[in-house]
Specification:
This protein is α+β, with helices and mostly antiparallel strands. It has two domains: 239 residues, Fervidobacterium nodosum Rt17-B1 like (Heat Shock Protein 90); 119 residues, Copper Amine Oxidase, Chain A, domain 1 (2-Layer Sandwich), CATH 3.30.457. 25% of the residues lie in helices and 37% in strands. The strands form four sheets. Strands 2, 3, 4, 5, 11, 12, 13 and 14 form an eight-stranded mixed β-sheet that branches. It has a six-stranded mixed β-sheet with strand order 15-16-17-18-19-20. A hairpin with a 2-residue loop joins strand 21 and strand 22. Helix 1 crosses helix 2. The chain is globular and about 60 Å long.
C-alpha cells in the first residue's frame, strides 16, 4: 500500500486556484492565503528533497527499459521523480512529440490523448485534452536535451512504471487505451461579485451511444450543480473583503483502459477567510453501459476488501502527526478513483487530519486487494 498524506499534496488544493487564475489573467485578485500556500509548497518541496537525500552533485543516471528491454537513452534522477528525455519518449516509446517554438510548448500525443507542456521556472505546466492540471511536473534541461517527470507518462499517457532503486532502473509498460475521445468544455462566468470558471469533460466515440449520453449527462450535471451553488453562495453573501469570490473547477482522467474510465473532479471555492473550500469527487464508469461504479461493485470479487484497507488506513493515520482520531472504517460508499494497477481511496477533508493535510489518499494495488485486473468492474 502506498499512502499520500503530505503538505505538498495538501497545498496543491490551493494551487488549483493560483493556476486557474493565472490562466484567466486574474492573478492580482488572488487572496493572500493562496499566495502563502504556494510559498508553503516550495518550502515543503525543499523539506522533501532533504528528507530523501537528494544529491547536490548533479543528477544520477537511470536506465530506462520498455517492458524490460533497455532503451538507448537514459533518464536522470530528479529531485522528486525519474526524469526521461523527450527524445526517448518520441523515439523509444513511440509517443508523438511536437515542439512549437513560438509558444515554447511541447505537445505529446498518444492515441486521442494530447498533453501540452509549458516549461517555466517551477516546472512544466500541463494541459491534457484542454484540462489544466493542478501542479507542474518536474522539468530539466541537460546538455541541450529537455527532460520531464515520468509521471507525465503514467498520469496521462497509459503507461505504468516500476522503479528498481538497487539497479537504478525504471521499467515502463504501455497499456492499450480505450478507443474514446475526451474533450474539455469550459464554463466561464464573470459578474461583479464573483468569477466562475469550470473545465469539465465530455466523452465521445463510444459504440454504445446510450452509455455515452449517460456518462456525459452525469458529468454535465455535476458542473451545472457547482455553478448553481456558486451563484447561490454569491447571492446569499456578497464579498465584503475587497476580493471577488472565486469558484474554480477542473478534472483529471486518472484511468482510461480495460473498458473503465476513472475521472477525478476537483472544485475550489474562495469566499473569504483564511482559506478556500476544496471539494473533490472520483467517478469511475463502465464504458459498456455507462454505469457509475461504487467501490463495492468494482471489487465485487472480494466483498471483504474492507478487512484489508480499514486496518491499513487506520495504522497510517495513527502514525500521522495531528491525527484527530476516530477512524474506524471507510464506510459503505467510500470515495475513490482508479490509478495505475490499483485504486486510490481518499478520505474527507478535515475529518481526521488538519486542513493543511488535504484529502488523505491511500493507494492499494488490485493484487493486494485480492482481485484480478481483468475482472474488476465486470
Amino acid at each position: 500500500m502506498t499512502t499520500k498524506i503530505s503538505k505538498i499534496m495538501a497545498v496543491a488544493l490551493t494551487v488549483v486556484l493560483l493556476a486557474a487564475l493565472a490562466i484567466s489573467g486574474l492573478e492580482d485578485s488572488v487572496p493572500a492565503s493562496a499566495a502563502e500556500a504556494e510559498q508553503e509548497t516550495g518550502e515543503a518541496t525543499i523539506e522533501l528533497q532533504r528528507a530523501e537525500g537528494v544529491s547536490e552533485q548533479g543528477p544520477a543516471l537511470v536506465q530506462i527499459t520498455l517492458k524490460g528491454k533497455p532503451l538507448k537513452l537514459q533518464g536522470i534522477q530528479g529531485e522528486q521523480d525519474v526524469l526521461v528525455p523527450l527524445e526517448l519518449i518520441e523515439n523509444g516509446l513511440k509517443v508523438k512529440v511536437k515542439y512549437d517554438k513560438g509558444s515554447n510548448r511541447y505537445f505529446l500525443r498518444r492515441d486521442h490523448v494530447v498533453v501540452q507542456l509549458t516549461p517555466k521556472e517551477d516546472g512544466a505546466w500541463a494541459v491534457v485534452n484542454g484540462s489544466t492540471q493542478v501542479l507542474p511536473y518536474e522539468w530539466k534541461e541537460l546538455n541541450g536535451l529537455p527532460y520531464v517527470s515520468s509521471k507525465v507518462l503514467t498520469d496521462h499517457l497509459g503507461f505504468t512504471s516500476t522503479y528498481d532503486a538497487s539497479k537504478k532502473t525504471l521499467d515502463l509498460v504501455p497499456h492499450k487505451l480505450n478507443k474514446i475521445r475526451i474533450t474539455t468544455r469550459v464554463v466561464d462566468k464573470s459578474i461583479p461579485e464573483a468569477s466562475i470558471k469550470v473545465e469539465y469533460p465530455q466523452v465521445g466515440g463510444l459504440k454504445n451511444k446510450s452509455a455515452e449520453r449517460k456518462i456525459n449527462d452525469l458529468l454535465q450535471s455535476r458542473t451545472d450543480d457547482f455553478v448553481k451553488q456558486s451563484l447561490k453562495e454569491t447571492k446569499e453573501g456578497p464579498p465584503v473583503s475587497g476580493h471577488t469570490y472565486q469558484f474554480l473547477g477542473n478534472y483529471t482522467v486518472t484511468f482510461n483502459r480495460d473498458g473503465l474510465l476513472s475521472i477525478l473532479l476537483q472544485y475550489y471555492s474562495y469566499t473569504g477567510g483564511a482559506h478556500g473550500n476544496p471539494v473533490r469527487e472520483g467517478l469511475t464508469f463502465r464504458l459498456s453501459d455507462g454505469k457509475l461504479l461504487t467501490l463495492d461493485e468494482l471489487l465485487k470479487d472480494n466483498p471483504d476488501y474492507r478487512k484489508i484497507v480499514d486496518p491499513a488506513i487506520a495504522k497510517q493515520l495513527e502514525a500521522t502527526e495531528g491525527y484527530f482520531g476516530g477512524f474506524k472504517t471507510i464506510g459503505s460508499n467510500p470515495s475513490y478513483y482508479l490509478k495505475n494497477d490499483g485504486v486510490v481511496i481518499f478520505l474527507p477533508l478535515y475529518e481526521y487530519l488538519p486542513y493543511v493535510n488535504g484529502f488523505p489518499e491511500f493507494y492499494f494495488p488490485f493484487s493486494e486487494l485480492g482481485v484480478k485486473m481483468g475482472k474488476i468492474g465486470k
